[in-house]
Amino acid sequence: MLFDWWAICPHVHCRDEEWRQKATIAEVFRLAHSQGIKMIFDMPNVFRPVIDRFRIWERLALVPPGERENYRLYIGLTGDESQILEALWCYDNIPEVIGLKMFAGRSVGNLSVIKEDSQRMVYRVLTQHGFQGVLAVHCEKEEAMNVKLWNPARPITHTWARSEVAEFASIADQAMFALSAGYQGRLHICHVSSPMSVRQVGLAKTHGLHISCGATPHHLMWDESKMTGADGLIYKMNPPLRSAVTVARLRQELVEGRIDCIETDHAPHTPEEKAPPLCLSGYPSLQLYRQFVTVFLPGLGLTEDAIKALTRDNILEIFSDKI
């Protein structure tokens, strides 16, 4: 337990099934509990994406006995309107479905909604059907990326290929699409890595959008220099680690209360999968959590009440309809 409360992590990748060599739901729970986290929200971009009720039931069957009340999962969205309606049914009828997840840029797996017309359609359908829950979005705009810059021999090139602009531009898109559609649910921006992104979230709030954002331990603790060493590929993730200047400014956004919650984006891979030729993105950040919350955050000057808000209270408020 951290301080006198149990924390919640609203963003983990438990893998399991065909990817059980990376981690299983049971293993993630054991690690989470060791770090002071009681409840986890699992992401849908597994080998067979979680996009319908049958996949949800399969995932729930993997939850260890006694942990069902501590497990929530997202259902992923595609550019198929009938699938979005299926996701809405699941949200309304399966208590463990905590929200909807859209990948507005490609990451690990094949679950994404890339075209802007398709993204607009998502907000239109959700609005038409009165959705008032949480739509969580991975924001990296494909058109603002330059994948030609990526060179596995120089891991830091990943940060150049997926710049801050790609994240910022995608957040601006999502806010515009949501406001244009009259979206009444909450838009949650996952794992912001740039102060520009945080300010874009703040701007959207001034226009009346119900929007929040989370940040990860790794984006707050580390900078891109981690990717210059011999083990640089270990620190490859989406969005990437940023410059020291950007990280310092992101920490200030956190201290000043403009980031709503901490989410680990725990994303385990095997050592072989992190190495060439795959070079998969993702870091197992749950293992950082206890030190991050008990040492790093107080070191930034955050009070116990502020840390409790970031690690539990704000998460309960954001997801209040389903916890």
Describe the fold and architecture.
There is one protein chain. This protein has 323 residues and is an alpha/beta fold. The chain has one domain: TIM Barrel (Alpha-Beta Barrel), CATH 3.20.20.140. The protein has twelve helices and eight strands. It has an eight-stranded parallel β-sheet. Helix 3 packs across helix 4, helix 4 runs parallel beside helix 6 and helix 6 runs parallel beside helix 7. The longest helix has 18 residues. The radius of gyration is 18 Å and the shape is globular. The relative contact order is 0.14.
Condensed summary:
The chain has helices at residues 25-34, 53-60, 81-93, 116-128, 157-161, 164-181, 195-206, 217-221, 244-255, 271-274, 289-299, 304-318, and strands at 7-12, 37-42, 71-76, 97-103, 134-138, 186-189, 211-215, 261-262.
**CATH top level?**
Alpha Beta
- What fold name stands as the CATH topology? TIM Barrel
Number of domains: 1
Number of strands: 8
How much of the sequence is in beta strands?
5-15%
Any idea what the radius of gyration is? Answer: 18 Å
Structural class: alpha/beta
How many angstroms separate the termini? 19 Å
Contiguous uncertain segments of 5+ residues: none
- Just name the CATH architecture: Alpha-Beta Barrel
| Oligomer classification | single chain
